[in-house]
Amino acid sequence: MAERNDLRVVHVGISIQGGIGGPARSITALGGALTRHGCRVDLVTVDWGRAFGQAIPIDNRALHVHVARGFFWKYPRLWLSPGFGRFLGQIAAGADLIHNDGIWLGMARASAAVSRKLGIPEVVSIRGELTPASLRTSAWKKAVVRRLYADRNLRRAACLHALTEREAADIRAYGLTNPIAIIPNGIDLASFDALPPRGQAAQCWPGLAGKKLVLFLGRIHPIKGLDYLMHAWCELARRFDGWHLVIAGPDEVGQQAQLEDTLRQGGAGGSVTFTGPAYGADQKALLAAADVFVLPSFSEGFSMSLLEALACRLPAVFTPGCNFNQAADAAAGRVAAPTAEAFGAALAELMSLPDAQRRDMGLRGRKLVEENYSWDHVAGQMAAVYRWLVGGGPAPACVKRGE
User: Fold this and answer.
1) Which CATH superfamily is domain 189-372 in?
2) What average pLDDT is seen over the chain?
3) Which residues pair with 71 in a beta bridge?
């Protein structure tokens, strides 16, 4: 069948608010890039209120964004968007395909219901939600959602989207036999080509002036491994005078007070700055000022913050759960087990290097990203999957068939 150049795709994303983190950046960037591959893309999402900040800027005017109203209660972490299914159904009328970026929220239930009602394929992005560590987080809530709709929706999806080979293995271990498209996240390299001067971060956070910086950029949440990082840092702060740890991100579940207490007890409170959420210019100022990037997470789908750090020529220390061994293979960083001892040792190694060697590692990371993770390359693969699902024919090379 001839390739279609007029696909109408509806993306369903949790939110484009900055406080959501990586998914807000990845779904908008993918949607914008798809418009350059013959797709009209409508992004249907939710505004969850002031707690998650402003919507991130979207440069691509060809991406059509539709925002429903939602309500979020921090305790007991309840997300509701009344009428979202009806809202989505109206926008999706006449679409060729729905791509849902989520599993657990009611938005996922609405996406599956609308795709079945309209008789069009649904792609579901897993985004790290089926790793053992993720499934253990809020396990009882997820058990309820699985029984109500999540497992049924996943089994019915025309295709599942995995960011890495490891995530594809997690999908199979979960018991799903659907076709899996293995396509990574991408990055807009041009947006990281003109970083601000290194000293700009110290204008916002004076405690950073004159220090070498280790940067964590992401949500403050137990799955991110910050608890053991604090224990490791208490030892590192005694060994490495002049170094400072920056934790930049929203305190999503109230863990920051516990982390600060660990630092006080370890005598390292003065060598760590919690900036709160850092988006846009603040985020780039921190990336420009950093010497090493860390991601101690127990589980990631495919971290946008790690990809962005490599694009900014930062050497990185991260865990196997980040699913990005390619960076270590390229000698752009170190992979370390998620323990205070192992992660601390790997971080100490990078902190001990001369500046020139860290810069060389950063350059190798940038080259890796340039050659493999542009959004145009990623969107071309995704568009090929869409055309296969809508028009038939041979599956693209990135698709793994189920048993």
Assistant:
1) Glycogen Phosphorylase B; (3.40.50.2000)
2) 93
3) 80
